[in-house]
Design brief:
Layout lengths: L9 E2 L13 E2 L1 E2 L2 E6 L5 E2 L10 H7 L1 E6 L2 E5 L12 E4 L12 H17 L11 E2 L6 E2 L6 E2 L4 E10 L2 E7 L10 E4 L6 H13 L3 E12 L4 E10 L12 E8 L12 H10 L6
Parallel strand pairs: 2-7, 12-16
Antiparallel strand pairs: 1-6, 3-4, 4-5, 4-8, 6-7, 9-10, 10-11, 12-13, 12-14, 13-17, 15-16
Cofactor: Zn(2+); Mg(2+)
GO molecular function: hydrolase activity
EC number: 3.6.1.22
């Protein structure tokens, strides 16, 4: 999955670091990430020294984000930074799946999560005053009313519904991703993970489930969330009642009917593949 970057390690502890020319820098525009393109058309994460524009000006804007191993990485909250010539290009975050080194996808998506949060908290949500960066922790602090805002992480549940050797797989409605998916949704106020799972399953496909078994979790900066995945067993009728606002399709597939999942990034693919290969017999 996206977080599996061993032997490397992402360290997201707050720190005071100053950006240098060799340090990786993230900047975004309209949800896309700025990437560097070399003479052989290979894409990589840009370093501060390669960014378009004056070096000192870029360094002054660089905000420490996190480190990978011992290498600090920075974020520039500058939506007006334009690529210079053919060396730079804004690309969809999912293109990071094919960028080396292997930690690039996790780093880029996590930086996007931070970028989204910082951009939404430039002003205090209580009194409207301009907010300032926290000095001792990753936070946005209001100098007027002292309100403190921390990075938002929204909990999401994912349900792989099984019935013997069958798995219910879905496809999203109205989204660019057209591959196989599982039931998923955000946890609402006052809900447990288990309660949210049962509600989402009922709302999207009209099924009742039982015997929830935890599979694993995944940070998913695309939606500022963390996903908790569960395998669950069908309880009662297998007749699907599809919510067509959310899903275009939901079908039961036997193990040998499920195509191999070549995406090693998402928990969705990991769960489907675990069932297809028999690693999960539930």
């Amino acid at each position: 999955m996206i977080q599996d970057i061993e032997p490397h390690k992402l360290n997201n502890s707050f720190a005071h670091e100053e950006a240098e020319r060799e340090h990786v820098v993230f900047t975004f525009k309209d949800g896309k990430i700025l990437l560097y393109r070399d003479s052989e058309d290979n894409l990589s994460l840009p370093t501060l020294g390669k960014l378009p524009g004056p070096f000192e000006e870029n360094r002054d804007k660089a905000l420490y984000a996190f480190s990978v191993d011992q290498d600090p990485m920075f974020l520039i909250l500058d939506k007006d930074m334009e690529p210079a010539g053919d060396e730079f290009t804004y690309r969809d975050l999912r293109e990071l799946y094919n960028v080396q080194p292997k930690w690039a996808a996790l780093a880029g998506v996590t930086a996007s999560h931070l970028n989204h949060w910082y951009s939404e908290h430039l002003f205090c949500g209580c009194c409207g005053s301009p907010a300032k960066l926290g000095k001792w922790e990753r936070a946005m602090v209001c100098p007027q009313c002292k309100n403190v805002q921390y990075p938002r992480i929204s909990p999401v549940i994912m349900a792989a519904i099984t019935d013997g050797d069958r798995l219910l797989v879905t496809r999203y409605a109205g989204r660019p991703y057209k591959g196989l998916a599982l039931i998923a949704g955000f946890v609402e106020i006052g809900e447990s993970l288990e309660g949210a799972l049962r509600r989402e399953v009922m709302e999207e496909v009209g099924l009742e489930v039982k015997n929830l078994r935890y599979f694993g979790s995944q940070p998913w900066g695309f939606s500022d969330s963390i996903i908790s995945g569960f395998f669950v067993q069908l309880s009662g009728s297998d007749q699907v009642r599809l919510d067509r606002d959310e899903l275009s399709e939901a079908v039961w597939l036997k193990r040998d009917e499920i195509p191999e999942q070549n995406n090693h990034i998402s928990i969705t693919a990991a769960m489907i593949e675990a069932f297809r290969t028999g690693k999960i017999n539930y």
